[in-house]
Automatic annotation (TrEMBL), chain A:
<feature type="transmembrane region" description="Helical">
    <location>
        <begin position="269"/>
        <end position="287"/>
    </location>
</feature>
<feature type="transmembrane region" description="Helical">
    <location>
        <begin position="65"/>
        <end position="84"/>
    </location>
</feature>
<protein>
    <submittedName>
        <fullName>ABC transporter permease</fullName>
    </submittedName>
</protein>
<feature type="transmembrane region" description="Helical">
    <location>
        <begin position="190"/>
        <end position="209"/>
    </location>
</feature>
<feature type="transmembrane region" description="Helical">
    <location>
        <begin position="12"/>
        <end position="30"/>
    </location>
</feature>
<dbReference type="InterPro" id="IPR001851">
    <property type="entry name" value="ABC_transp_permease"/>
</dbReference>
<feature type="transmembrane region" description="Helical">
    <location>
        <begin position="138"/>
        <end position="159"/>
    </location>
</feature>
<feature type="transmembrane region" description="Helical">
    <location>
        <begin position="215"/>
        <end position="234"/>
    </location>
</feature>
<feature type="transmembrane region" description="Helical">
    <location>
        <begin position="91"/>
        <end position="110"/>
    </location>
</feature>
UniProtKB/TrEMBL annotation, chain B:
<dbReference type="InterPro" id="IPR028082">
    <property type="entry name" value="Peripla_BP_I"/>
</dbReference>
<dbReference type="Pfam" id="PF02608">
    <property type="entry name" value="Bmp"/>
</dbReference>
<feature type="signal peptide">
    <location>
        <begin position="1"/>
        <end position="23"/>
    </location>
</feature>
<protein>
    <submittedName>
        <fullName>BMP family ABC transporter substrate-binding protein</fullName>
    </submittedName>
</protein>
<dbReference type="InterPro" id="IPR003760">
    <property type="entry name" value="PnrA-like"/>
</dbReference>
<dbReference type="InterPro" id="IPR052910">
    <property type="entry name" value="ABC-Purine-Binding"/>
</dbReference>
<feature type="domain" description="ABC transporter substrate-binding protein PnrA-like">
    <location>
        <begin position="27"/>
        <end position="287"/>
    </location>
</feature>
<keyword id="KW-0732">Signal</keyword>
Length: 307, 356
């Protein structure tokens, strides 16, 4: 096994992890603000469909990415209105959003099945991309992967050391108190949900513009759900979300590689590997700290300023 | 024609509500495993449905339910269809076999047709294409174009239908390249483009330079294109997904079989039969071959194709050896259809074991 081989495995790991990372970061932010949006899969699909259509029609990747993010956001407005303004049950609304998004994406994408575009091309950063092992994985990716790194760093900083991070957490932990202090709880939750929608849309754009540059129904294949689970196992911490996404990506690649080497292990068992590894590692980390009590305390509970 | 979308649940509701207006036309239902927009397997079935639906006009009324998971879910969908007055139901995936047989027992007056399986009953026939014939031809091209002598195959599930295609591909490749070997990766899904792509990337990492797949999306063609390697497609002509990478595709055309089956039910002459059309009947073909492929290889492929069509050649004719180098099909004989339907071993040159 030479260095170039490991380079390539890590490169594939990061690429596999990117859609999960984008969705999970978005879901984490809205959950940190106390809103549980199970509609991630639907938003990813709508984002993927519109990103592909926009890129196909305009011929520009930039428009594709923007359209994806915007489409995800637009769908999330629907969720926000029903769950936050009308105070409907968030779990039910989120599930409905997934079903809605799945159908909507199939409907708008129907005419684009079988069309092909040239996907986003990787941009290798000179010098940095030559670093052994991590160079290719971190510095020879496409723009959306770099964007996901940037968003990760930004969110990590916001949640760790800014007032904005504190406010978002307050809204998720104790909205009554945040309200009493004069923070517009509903508005902040709206923004958090919209941000989550945009992130899911970006993940969709990554799938349909870069990873597999095409539109095919159900292209997300459950990644929205995996990302939701990642957030829980990462106990709502930014850096653990990244770790979890990478672990999952690595184990997915490993499972395929092991098969190629002819290891005589059932692919069904190997297929469980990514889930098992990710869950075990993150649960151990969770245990070492303060247990499972890390969920934002008002997660999923509607808030009405008048109560 | 009624177009049903969104989810199996909604589809069932639509079927239930439409049942009351049952009139003269023969009601024909289709159950699909992936979305009709998968650009692969289900897409080709849907094309065929549209063709026969057009041809028969007022005589039939068709509907489909897409994205139906194999197993218990499918049994419910099939039963609902039968219950709501469908006369002929096509179930188009291997995993629907047992659910179809079970549903057929409960609805003896409804005619069922199951694709790619091996079980039949009084009111259950089956049909499939000899896609292995097209695969064999695609394998000939792949073998000739491999420089590393390693082919990579992305399989969905280790079932006879897929194993047969893998073996046919390998036997074809051996015709043009005696040193060829092949690695197989199973992804345990019919349709997950990103995962199919990951599998393709893993195969290329391990030295494969021509890829093929038995899954539903064209993701592996794109993976090969991005890495400057070659690939062959499946189901439909997939050249649009990788103009430089796409060598050819093993294609399927289902409409002739659908036409025959529907006509038989309309005539009242339907009997449970196992219909298995191939290159000869136009149910399979290969897509135009890439210009990188040398002329003598193209000519050889054409020659083998016409021999298969004429019945002078069989993909699985002896001598065929298994991985342990023992002879499985002696010279001068060929595998029977019954054996092909239960294919559970790899031919020589394929690495790894079939997961049990």
């Amino acid at each position: 096994m030479d260095i170039a081989f490991i380079d390539n495995v890590l490169f594939a790991t990061v690429r596999t992890a990117t859609p999960l990372l984008l969705v999970a970061l978005g879901a984490m932010m809205s959950e940190r603000a106390g809103v549980l949006n199970l509609g991630q899969e639907g938003m990813v699909l709508v984002g993927a469909a519109l990103a592909f259509i926009a890129a196909y029609v305009t011929g520009s990747m930039g428009w594709g990415v923007l359209a994806g993010a915007f489409a995800g956001m637009l769908v999330s407005v629907l969720f926000a209105f029903i769950a936050l303004s009308l105070m409907a049950n968030q779990v039910a609304t989120g599930l409905a959003l997934t079903i809605f998004g799945t159908g909507l994406s199939a409907f708008i994408g129907a005419d684009y099945v079988g069309q092909s575009i040239t996907g986003l091309s990787p941009i290798a950063i000179p010098l940095l991309s030559n670093i052994p092992l991590v160079g290719k994985a971190l510095f020879a990716q496409d723009l959306l992967v770099y964007l996901s790194f940037g968003l990760f760093a930004g969110l990590w900083w916001i949640m760790r050391s800014t007032r904005l991070g504190l406010i978002i957490r307050a809204v998720g932990e104790n909205p009554q108190a945040a309200h009493a202090l004069g923070y517009p709880v509903i508005k902040i939750r709206y923004l958090a949900v919209l941000f989550g929608g945009a992130m899911a849309g970006l993940a969709g754009a990554y799938l349909s513009l870069s990873y597999t540059p095409m539109w095919s129904e159900g292209i997300a294949a459950g990644r929205g759900w995996i990302a939701l689970a990642l957030v829980v196992f990462a106990s709502w911490r930014t850096q653990r979300v990244l770790l979890g996404a990478w672990l999952f990506g690595f184990a997915s690649i490993l499972h395929l590689l092991l098969q190629g080497y002819g290891y005589d292990i059932s692919p069904n068992l190997l297929g469980m590997l990514p889930y098992l590894v990710t869950i075990i590692v993150l649960v151990i980390m969770m245990r070492r700290k303060q247990g499972i009590g890390d969920a934002p305390r008002s997660l999923g509970r509607p808030f009405s300023p008048s109560r | 024609m009624r177009r049903i979308r969104f989810s199996p649940l909604l589809a069932i509701l639509a079927i239930l509500f439409s049942a009351s207006s049952s009139a003269d036309p023969l009601k024909v239902g289709f159950v699909y495993v992936s979305p009709v927009g998968d650009a692969g397997w289900t897409y080709m079935h849907e094309q065929a449905r549209q063709i026969v639906s057009e041809e028969f006009g007022d005589q039939i009324e068709t509907a489909f339910v897409e994205g139906v998971a194999e197993g218990a879910d499918s049994e419910r969908v099939i039963r609902k269809m039968a219950k709501s007055g469908y006369d002929l139901i096509f179930t188009t995936s291997f995993g629907y076999m047992n659910p179809t047989i079970k549903a057929a027992k409960r609805f003896p007056k409804v005619t069922f047709e199951h694709a790619t399986g091996y079980k039949m009953a009084k009111n259950v026939g089956n049909y499939m294409t000899r896609d292995h014939e097209a695969r064999y031809l695609a394998g000939m091209v792949a073998g000739a174009m491999s420089k590393t002598d390693v082919l990579g195959f992305v399989g969905a599930f280790p079932i006879p239908e897929v194993v047969r295609g893998i073996n046919a591909y390998m036997l074809g490749a051996q015709q043009t390249n005696p040193d060829i070997t092949m690695k197989v990766i199973w992804v345990n899904t019919w349709h997950d483009p990103a995962r199919e792509r990951e599998a393709a990337e893993s195969l290329m990492l391990q030295g494969a330079d021509v890829l093929a797949m038995h899954t539903d999306s064209p993701a592996i063609i794109q993976a090969a294109e991005a890495n400057g390697k070659y690939a062959t497609g499946f189901n439909s002509d997939m050249s649009v997904y990788g103009p430089n990478a796409h060598l050819t595709s093993a294609m399927q055309h289902w409409h002739n079989m659908y036409r025959d089956k529907i006509q038989a039910v309309l005539d009242g002459s339907w009997k449970p039969t196992s219909v298995w059309h191939g290159l000869k009947q136009g149910a399979n073909d290969i897509a135009p071959i890439h210009s990188d492929v040398p002329d003598e290889i193209v000519a050889l492929v054409e020659q083998h194709k016409s021999q298969i069509v004429a019945g002078d050649r069989n993909v699985f004719q002896g001598p065929i050896y298994n991985q342990l180098n023992s002879i499985m099909v002696p010279e001068g004989s060929q595998m029977s259809d019954a054996e092909l339907l239960k294919f559970n071993w790899y031919v020589q040159g394929i690495e790894g074991k079939i997961p049990q």
